[in-house]
Amino acid sequence: MHELLEYGFFRNALWSTLLIGTGCGLVGTYIVARRVVFISGGITHASFGGLGLAYFLGLSPLLGAALFALAAAFSILRLSAGGRFREDSLIGIFWSAGMAMGVLFIYLTPGYAPNLLSYLFGNILTVTASQVWLSLALGAAIVLFFVLFHRPLFYIAFDREYSRTHHVAIEWLETGVTVCMALCIVLCMKLAGIILVISYLTIPPTIAARFRGNFKQQLVLSAAVSCAGSVAGLFASALLDLPSGATIVFCFLLLLAACHAMRRRGKAPR
């Protein structure tokens, strides 16, 4: 393991894993509590359209994916809130449209076509130092956001009507969470890929919810589980020569299975 840390690309992947894992753990806790998990799936796949368009125009793929992710997130929230469209229908529309646009624009791009598998399933070799700094900035912003607003976010997640009667700024806070979620998804693509990003936002919070009833404790434990599973999966993928994204998700699943077994054993009659 010590030898792996001598490689710059692996150190970049490790730092990015820790930083993005922390952010996804916090944002995912709110998403799971709010029961809007599949919105993250729609945003993730919609961002692929921006990635393909950026390739076609010769721009930064990460920038294109971020812009499309933010546009899809706000479109789903605003159109569903107005009652003009069903939320699940919008998710399906943006999900399929983003993937179709991404494939189409990458196909139309002249010259060498990029390897789609690296974006669909992740590739630690593609994490750069600049992306680590972006992950640091985003991770710090997300931690600060949840430290300052974890209580009103708890109210919104579990009882929106109570939040309205107590004059909680629901729209502003949901906008903040949406931005955090969209940017987490985009930066997480390099590690887990578009297909597997949703696991970062769902499995660690699910594990945390089984052990902690307090929302603040769930936030901390979810971030810790996300980092632990990510690091374990990253080292395992390097040592066993396996795809990083799939290995990280498999480590999450092992942690979930182990935690479930511990809970069942603790509740078993003696």
The number of domains is 1
The count of strands amounts to 0
The CATH homologous superfamily: ABC transporter involved in vitamin B12 uptake, BtuC
N- to C-terminal distance: 42 Å
Strand content: under 5%
State the helical fraction. over 70%
Shape: globular
- Give me the Rg, rounded: 19 Å
From the 3D structure, determine the CATH topology: ABC transporter involved in vitamin B12 uptake, BtuC
Q: Overall pLDDT, averaged? A: 80
Residue ranges: pLDDT <50 for 5 or more in a row? none
What is the overall number of helices?
A: 10
The second-level CATH architecture is: Orthogonal Bundle
CATH class call? Mainly Alpha
One letter per element, helices H and strands E, the order comes to HHHHHHHHHH
Biggest sheet character = none
Structural class: mainly alpha
